[in-house]
Amino acid sequence: MSMNNAPNVFLDPNANRFQVNIINEDHDNNETTQVDVGSDPPHYEETSFTDETHNRLRISYRPGKRELYDNFRQNGEKTEASLHPYDTHSKMYYLQTFGHNTMDPVPKIDYYRNTGSVSGNKLNRPSLLEIHEQLAKNIAVSTGSVERVANGESTAGDETAASKEEENKTGFVKFGWVKGVLVRCMLNIWGVMLFIRLSWIVGQAGIGLGVIIILLATMVTSITGLSTSAIATNGFVRGGGAYYLISRSLGPEFGGSIGLIFAFANAVAVAMYVVGFAETVVELLKESDTLMVDESNDIRIIGTITVVCLLGISVAGMEWEAKAQVILLIVLLVAIANFFIGTVIPTNTEKKARGFFNYQGSIFAENFGPDFRSGEGFFSVFAIFFPAATGILAGANISGDLKDPQSAIPQGTMLAILITTIAYIAVAICAGSCVVRDATGNVNDTIVPGMSCNGSSACGLGYDFSRCASQPCDYGLMNNFQVMSMVSGFGPLITAGIFSATLSSALASLVSAPKVFQALCKDNVYKGLEFFAKGYGKNNEPIRGYVLTFVIAMAFILIAELNTIAPIISNFFLASYALINFSCFHASYAKSPGWRPAFRYYNMWVSLFGALLCCGVMFVINWWAALITYAIELFLYIYVTYKKPEVNWGSSTQALYFVNALDSALALTTVEDHVKNFRPQCLALTGAPMVRPALLDITHTFTKNNGLCICCEVYTGPRKLCVKEMNSGMEKKQAWLTKNKRKAFYAAVAADSFRDGVKSLLQASGLGRMKPNTLVIGFKKDWRSAPATQVENYVGIIHDAFDFELGVIIIRISQGFDISQVLQVQEELEKLEQERLALEATIKENDFEEGKRGICGFFKKASSLNISKHETKKESTINTIQSMHVGEFNQRLLEASTQFKKKQGKGTIDIWWLFDDGGLTILIPYILTLRKKWKNCKLRIFTGGKVNRIEEEKLVMASLLSKFRIKFADINIICDINIKPNKESWKFFEEMIEPYRLHESCKDITTAEKLKREAPWKITDAELEAFKEKSYRQVRLNELLQEHSRAANLIVLSLPVARKGAVSDYLYMAWLEILSKNLPPVLMVRGNHKNVLTFYS
Fold it and tell me: Where's the Amino acid permease N-terminal domain (predicted)?
């Protein structure tokens, strides 16, 4: 087949630089011809990804394909470089990229999207298999699948397309960095504190320390802002604000705990701000003597009306809420400007009597230093001011409603912190330079000639406020919270500013709480809260969350003592700041390649300092509130950790797990092995773990929390199919181990033969010092009926394990380990049950519809009856299948597969320690007795000895075991191991090996040699004679086991070793068969003859 690479494309100077051509291949015709766009009909379709004139997708289509094209334009992605529909009727296709025929796509953002992305469809690039394998075998696809690839669709992608279609239809309201972040943060940071407490803070701490307090609070928020910016620019940010940033960085445990208390804090903050507004209104009503009921009830009434109005604005949509915020900001800016203007307007006698003298150097000098009174100090004043600096997450909390959160959050947040800090410092300095600390308010308190002055700045300006030292005064920085209103050019504007500050903060919190809570519920971290995840309208508004926030706010307005709850709320916010800082530090410390924030102006150690600073400030503000915050967060953290939500967000916690594991593994390589630290590290040939659960269970019993356990599976057969099956099952089988709480790893290899695969596993499994030292396999029950190659592989694996100096444990149970047939039957029954339930649902739905139609449904009753008959037939079929399969699959096999999961009653573990293998034969049962399921079993030791030395042998063995600190119930010395077995037992053994004997001694030499060449695996007469004594011993041992250990819970027995090249595979299998036949579960153990026990300390 020749391929035309369209050379004219490269010769034409006006041609596009990059083209992808979809070319039809015809097996009957070796030539592929390109036809111009205008040709009819074209043999291929050409897609230009860059068009100099139109800069859009240009597609040519065959006659009659217009409908398909229109379909694609409606449903597909409208970005450039998208694939397009084409005809694949009995054809195969490939792409032409950069003038070369290849399926390789160019880099494109749509390949990197999440499946549920709302900002664009996820496209699926060709898999490595499709590119790597032969074109003819992998490219042929159906028309439907081609259209699916062209549109970049998948199952989840269909939902994405639907969400995009609705987005295009209704139009989401998205905010820029000014309206979405800057305005919100400034409004939330500027609160009531600016107007009614900042002057008092300056009075107490002085201008110098007051500015330091402001800068210290700003340092906390600035570091948090830098950390927030770093996290927000490390990938796409969705809705959820602080919760989203923390959860995606530190994981669901931290994110889930802080998300809930952060949402709750915002909900209660609504009540706090509304009560602040209501208190101001009530003060005005009180001054005009127009209270409705009394002060407390008036606050409740006004607060309720205010919350309802704010709820209405929020529910109306983010667009209305944003407009309201802009109006409130304008009012707030006018109020602040009004204050600064008032400071330069010449004062009057009344204002002078209240302590306002315009800018005076003497007042600045007097107020520069601190003058703490009434038990206040630096930290107590700082604690009062700090809540005024919070609110920096107001923009981040609506991250889902921002056009570009990655640039909006850093820009808006940091600029808001800068502007508000400058405003706070300016107001503090101006107030401290214009107003004295104490004033009487009496215009007659002036200095008359001859009157002594106390040296204060007021004296120098002609006023005597000295009596404030002995009795309380009502005016001045220390006494009057309405200093800003007095100083301002127009007092009512300051009141309007207070209204604006409280209402804007309340509105921001009322929006933030439901948004954060909705994101938390969508992630399903807390199972019972899915109800609040649903959104409504074009902006996916959390109406249910708004209602819940309204209820919480109303409850605290009506019944809560807000002065008590306020410190806890401040600490909730600080806890989230601390975790954001810690998230930035943790992500940097984990050194994950995925941590690449576009915002560079951060430092991991500064972020850690910020986290510690936040924790310190929590205790400075209120120590008991800090303890309550930590307790609640710890409780929620433990709860989420226990529930283990099924999410994978690639958190820095996961990255740090890897780094720690890698460091520990590398550190372990420098530690030399020591016999005291020996532990069984097992490579168990379980196949798929769920197929041989009993083999995994017994292995897991002596490796859990103690050693390495790797469940291994070998795929044999056509390499391509094996690799595909292996890759597809890896995660599923590891997940099965995790779900069933098996502390084990799953490993699989594809190999030409079973033995080659196991050989690879024996050599390459593990990491550093964490490498298997023991091979665990099940006994091959079907060795007599299996092909000779399988038996050769099985015995060869044991030889290979010994060659690589691994211990070997062969486990045998009466029913065998493989329950794959049972699993298959269960799967079939589950499918039938699902079909039955689906059929029932269909019938109910049909009956319901017919009931709605009334009399018309009567005429269609026949069809319903037919369905009912079909259902009855289906049910009877299911019952028949169930009854049939109950007889087919062995119930005892199911019970045997779970026998090692059950708690073993009082009994014994009989250890037949016949040969010294380094101690593994005794160590394995000892470890078993440490487990809860086996702790009631006593160890009985059986070993060989001489008749005339039974007591001495017992004492020697008891002394050895006591030095090893291994408790035992009894020691038995077996003296008659080497006598011949009885005739019946030996006859059974001979009959068992008869089919595998060569009997060469009965034939001439030529025939015997020919038989040896044809069946080298058969047992020769010479071999049987050479190992007759050893065969006797295996048969005799079975007789002794039947006699002494038939009632044991478990038998642990020294595994006989077959010399390579001397003992045939079938003779060795016969030894193992006769040795372990008709017994309780048997572990045949052989260590690698290196010490695993020591009596030295």
Answer: 87-153
Distance set, CA 68 to CA 74, 147, 168, 176, 765 (Å): 10, 9, 22, 38, 53
Q: Is 97 exposed, middle or buried (0-12, 13-18, 19+ CB in 10 A)?
A: middle
pLDDT at 159 over 90: no
d(CA 930, CA 923): 11
Q: Which residues are CB-neighbours of 826 under 8 A, at least 6 positions away?
A: none
Bridge-based pairing of strands 970-974 and 937-944 is: parallel
In terms of Cβ atoms closer than 10 Å to its own Cβ (0-12, 13-18, 19+), residue 821 is: middle
Q: Tell me the residue length of the chain.
A: 1097
Contact predicate 921/1052, CB 8 Å? yes
pLDDT band at 135, cuts 50/70/90? low
Mean pLDDT of 741-747: 91
Contact 301, 292 (CB under 8 A): yes
Is this structure's pTM higher than 0.70? no
Q: List own/partner pairs for 1060-1063 with CB under 8 A and 24 or more apart.
A: 1060/799, 1062/1023, 1062/1026, 1062/1027, 1063/1023, 1063/1027
Render pLDDT for 673-699 as a digit per residue (tens, 0 to 9): 888 889 999 999 999 999 999 999 999
908-929 confidence digits (pLDDT tens): 999 999 999 999 999 999 999 9
Q: What is the mean pLDDT of residues 272-277?
A: 83
Q: Which two tokens stand for residue 454?
A: 């106390």
**What would the two tokens of residue 437 be?**
């600390």
Q: Is the pLDDT of residue 420 over 90?
A: yes
d(Cα 326, Cα 309) in Å, to the nearest integer? 17
721 in helix, strand or coil? helix
User: What pLDDT does residue 1027 have?
Assistant: 92
Q: Are 897 and 694 in contact (CB under 8 A)?
A: yes
